[in-house]
């Protein structure tokens, strides 16, 4: 069953919820009404009908190597308190974004590579447990403008990747809200940061063992042919 949603209608509902965070996580200067759609996942639980309890949201630049049904099984692996399933970012983009916080906190794991570090998240493949999002007092508090402001100040955070930035920053503070998907569910291919100052550490972020289930051709990277 396919249901088409009107983008303008969704944006209208979204804007009041995400307006405050747009100035922290949008590429443009200021807050653009149309930018709200890049924060759809953040507030999906507020605008979708109550009878919809789970949603998988995916980017368009993906290639599936397995049945997408198998990804729905990941909802069963959510630990207590988790509301969103998401894979780690596979480039040192957040090592870069959190540079000031990392300088002030030399012992931090924020921005460090896996398995022990906190490299941030990539929102190309998202499992949204809408029911859990609706019931999580903590998650809904984090959407409040005062909380967004507080965290962006603490981490000196200024991003440009929309929902991905929000989830990454929240994940530094409250990792318990997230079920981390294996890298094979969102095998990102972009290597931009390898050539922009991070070649020495790039491979620590980029490696991914296992049989790829979903390729993600982010930053217009060609996806391997079968």
UniProtKB/TrEMBL annotation:
Print the keywords alphabetically.
Transferase
Which Gene Ontology biological process is one annotated for this entry? protein O-linked glycosylation via N-acetyl-galactosamine
Looking up InterPro entries in the UniProt record yields: Glyco_trans_8, Nucleotide-diphossugar_trans, XXLT1
Q: Does the keyword Transferase apply?
A: yes
Q: Which GO terms describe its molecular function?
A: xylosyl alpha-1,3-xylosyltransferase activity
What Gene Ontology cellular-component terms does the record carry?
endoplasmic reticulum membrane
Is Transferase among the key words of this record?
yes
Q: Which PANTHER family match?
A: XYLOSIDE XYLOSYLTRANSFERASE 1
Official protein name in the record: XXLT1 xylosyltransferase
